[in-house]
Design goal:
With 372 residues, this protein is an alpha+beta fold. Helix content is 51%, strand content 10%. Strand 2 and strand 3 form a beta hairpin.
Length: 372
């Protein structure tokens, strides 16, 4: 959309834009840090006049009552932050459990502007686990950044602070353990687990996979994971990708066809409502007498095998559907380092063999010269 009108003083914004592929104009108005309101106009002149009217009303102070009052205590800030409509229930529960501990330790009746970086550092120092510190710090930083966006704070007390924990790879299965693990799975779970091991699909992608996703890319059978207009499914990261199907993956599809048919979903007859893949995996690992691996660990196993087989980190990141290659590098750093070490050792052995061959040829040439 092309913008033809814009007014802003850093707190309040009004813009007019032409709607894409529509014969109308959109007037957008919002306070920084708050949700926006929009109106439609049939012509550019009407839209500009409406935007100028909104701007004059704002300058006259008619919108001051729409701004939320600044929270007076840290408890109030925590409650407002966790009550936002933009976050899901899981994130809300996580934020609340972290920030309640923070407010209790720092003093819930203190003003948010009175919180200092030392308060955050002192609270985090009481936790020895680095991953716990990093998780708690992310919640505190998100809350104060939100308060800054609302103009309740001039700056965040967490600004410039860094707490991170080294990402550890999840337990995964080496390829030589796959046959024993699959043999210990139940018949239905064996099909889903084998397909995940071969393609690296996520749990929710296995649940929502449909036969419409299977097609051919450059003559190779592949499964395309992306937005599904029928079910509204959208993969994590909102990025579509096509994963080539190996012979074993195609075999899993044939078994799925015999088990559930070829209508709609691949790995169920009418959609999996509440699948407990973790319990199925746990039972299979117990029967096979191997270490416990979650269903997500099967996806990690696929990525690990690709790296060991020599695929580059960029190719593996694309096959796994990671939005950022740094995610792949962080989670598979140990495997990629081991693969690099093997390649260096192989290269060194080749170089050594070449040098030894050259040395042998030089000595043989000298001996032949002496004989003549």
């Amino acid at each position: 959309m092309s913008k033809i009108f814009c007014r802003s003083d850093g707190k309040f914004n009004v813009t007019v834009r032409k709607r894409k592929n529509r014969p109308s104009w959109q007037i957008r108005a919002w306070f920084r840090g708050y949700s926006e309101t929009s109106e439609s106009a049939k012509s550019s002149e009407e839209a500009v006049q409406g935007a100028e009217r909104i701007w004059r009303e704002y300058q006259a102070g008619l919108f001051d009552n729409q701004i939320e009052a600044e929270p007076l205590t840290l408890w109030e800030l925590v409650e407002r932050f966790c009550a936002r409509e933009q976050i899901g229930n899981a994130s809300r529960s996580s934020y609340w459990s972290h920030l309640v501990l923070f407010a209790s330790a720092c003093g819930g009746r203190r003003r948010p502007a009175g919180i200092r970086p030392g308060d955050i550092q002192l609270w985090l120092s009481t936790y020895e686990n680095l991953a716990t510190r990093a998780s708690f710090f992310r919640s505190v930083r998100a809350m104060f950044n939100w308060a800054v966006a609302k103009d309740w704070l001039a700056t965040s007390p967490a600004k410039g602070m860094v707490y991170s924990a080294q990402t550890q790879i999840r337990p995964w299965l080496e390829p030589h353990l796959w046959p024993g693990f699959l043999a210990a799975c139940s018949p239905a779970h064996r099909i889903r687990a084998q397909f995940s091991l071969e393609t690296g699909l996520r749990r929710n992608e296995i649940v929502n996979a449909r036969w419409d996703w299977v097609h051919s890319v450059v003559g190779l059978p592949s499964i395309r994971v992306g937005y599904d207009a029928v079910t509204g499914f959208l993969p994590k990261g909102k990025r579509a990708r096509a994963v080539p199907l190996t012979t074993d993956a195609q075999h899993a599809l044939r078994l799925a066809q015999l088990q559930w048919g070829t209508r709609g979903y691949i790995f169920s007859a009418d959609g999996l409502r509440s699948p407990n893949f973790h319990r199925e995996n746990q039972r299979a690992c117990e029967r096979a007498k191997i270490r416990q691996v979650t269903f997500h660990g099967l996806r990690v196993s696929a990525g690990a095998r690709w790296l060991v087989q020599g695929l580059g980190i960029h190719e593996v990141s694309k096959l796994l559907g990671h939005a950022d290659i740094r995610t792949t590098m962080n989670h598979y750093a140990g495997i990629s380092d081991a693969t690099l070490a093997k390649k260096i050792a192989l290269l060194q052995s080749v170089l050594n063999s070449d040098i030894s061959d050259k040395v042998v040829s030089v000595f043989s040439d000298r001996r032949s010269d002496r004989a003549t």
